[in-house]
Structure of Metalloendopeptidase:
Amino acid sequence: MQWTLKMINYTKLTVTCLVIATSAILISSDNNIRKYKQKYTIEDLLTKTFPKKTSNDLDMDPCKAGHFLDDIAIQSQVQPNKLTKDEVIFQEEVEKYKKEVLEGLQVEEEGLTNYLRKKSKQIPNENPVRASNDPLGDLTTPENGYHAKYDIYWKSGTHVPDGMNGRLKRKKRDNWSQKIFKNRKIRAATARKERIWDYGVIPYEIDGNFSGLHRALFKQAMKHWENFTCIKFIERDRDEHPNYITFTEKTCGCCSFVGKRGNGGQAISIGKNCDKFGIVVHELGHVVGFWHEHTRPDRDKHVEILRDNIMNGQEYNFNKLTDDEVNSLGLTYDYDSIMHYARSTFSKGTFLDTIQPIDVPGKKKPEIGQRVRLSQGDIAQTNILYKCPKCGETFQMNTGKFSPQENAAKCEWRITATHGEKILLNISDLNIAKSHDCRTEYVEVRDGYWHKSPILGVFCKGKFHQIMSRGSRMLVKYVSSYPKEKPGFKASFEAICGGDLVVETEGHLESPNFPDDYQPNKECIWRITVPEEFRVALKFQSFEVENHDGCVYDYIEIHDGLALKSPVLKVYCGYKIPQDVTSSSNQMLVKFVSDGSVQKAGFSALILKEYDECSVIDHGCEQECINTIGSYECSCKIGYELHSDGKKCEAACGGMLSDSNGTITSPSFPELYPLNKNCVWEIKAEPQFRITLNFTHFDLEGNNAQPHQCEYDRLEVYSKMSDNKIKDHGLFCGSKLPSLITSDSNILRIVFSSDSSTQKTGFAAIYFTGT
């Protein structure tokens, strides 16, 4: 249809908010109907071009990976070739199968439930045994790899979910892409240098939906990795760490990317069946950069894959990788690796093995699939991968001693205390060659965890030195150009709790030894100060202190000021996370006391500088401002909703439209549409008239080449017929403009839905009515 562009005057449309409920539209009473103002005219949409963009959270939902290799997720490419009818049915059955049960890592490793076994038998087993150089067989090869249930991500890497966490796709062999998995190295170690975390530092965040027990579990698992390697897990500093991991819970269960994605935040999903120490350590192994042990190219010399016992549709999890995909770094096959499959993983039956160690005459078969602790091989592999100094170690205890090994040229000691503790280091018996400015041999002490941390001192002379850290971490480095048999120095340290804490932006406070049990007969006093125009706010994240009705044994006492005689704000003990506490000034004193018996995990809290941001004129909220601890949030009046920028308000999406022509745009268009949005528009024309919908801009998450894949964000269009039935005109997502749509009745309904991650610019459309 030809359109002549004109300036058209439009009457204001009246609309009301609509809610999706079993495909019906619930319309509020006439008294609540508000005026609807179109954001753009028809001429605007026909003449203007709006750029497309995507939110910066592509890796924050590992469940959206196209495939999974066990718990490893892989991003899939848009498939230009259409699937056959049988392939579509197969894929839809697999999708339904995966969604019926929330799968976790523990389930994957120890065998699936009878229910899952039954469902798996319903999936046709059309995958032949694949050659070793055909790692994916007839599964689509992704451009980016991600590990779910053991999820890991590689750009140009390859990962398939560990179970039912990812999307399985089948492709005709004659259309099979020539690409193959290219990003896995022998023994779980990645060969992609860009996937290695810079300086062995892995910044992390933990979603607020996790309990204090979960937070403690995650920290225990991270400390386990730190204790045996030079890996350092650090709370993310937004200014310092552009790339980081976020502990979250997605529907895929247990999954993570392999190594560093390099695109900002990336998720490590810990589902309900995965919140066990060994499983979290395993998932962190993927984050560090490891695939599963049994995928090594040389695995056939060490284990046998019993393919007849593997659940239908799960054979790809046992494919091995090629030498250019995996790098074992010279280490032998490790049956004891925490990254190894168990004997019955993906088994058709409880007592059927899918993977077995090869018999060696005179030797007992080794056990495989342990989820207890890092093996010696895991530790050695990590230290080689991250080039950890051979001399030195990580200390996580309250006291300790150390000195360089004989003939050591470079040593590094990493001392870690809990937040709220400082480290007192004593250096003695210096036996260092004299040099100008300590160039040839020296001891360097830094106030933090890496080379960017402030230097507390460089020592090459003198008999005794005492250094106190300002924070809870200390890095000690010894360098010698002339290695010798006699140690260059001796050192001892002690973690001391309490003291003055000056918080400029945000800080952390923890009981001694958290998340492990605090020591008996401990007393710690912290004096906290924030800038003068703020108040001190304490927000507890974990809390487990010996319980008593009067809190007379172990307790936390909070004072409104810096002295013990200052007014007491709260006294806490027990196992319930306390409410936030705020001082009346910029000063607060926190006292922690434990007696001689019954120790618990203690507490972890955020220190925030608090003030009423809503009293500041430039807070940016268009309509209403709500003050929160340490921050604020904007809200909107009835009939309006918050823009995706979190500041502006716009008319609530959806509504009834009765004009003969007009425009419809997604919420916040042309900016990114909001998360978790459901909108319904219903256009009603005169009887005997029909409605034509013409899209001028379309940009939704998903792949519109295969409409059944629009499972994240989507747009549905259908006609409402006179017999209350509907005529479906299509389900749309992706970036391709839908064709012109003409209704089959005088009522056309448009339904837009977005999920909890990945935003795009949405859609814009014009409509007109006629006979």
About this structure: The radius of gyration is 30 Å. DSSP finds seven helices and 48 strands in the chain.
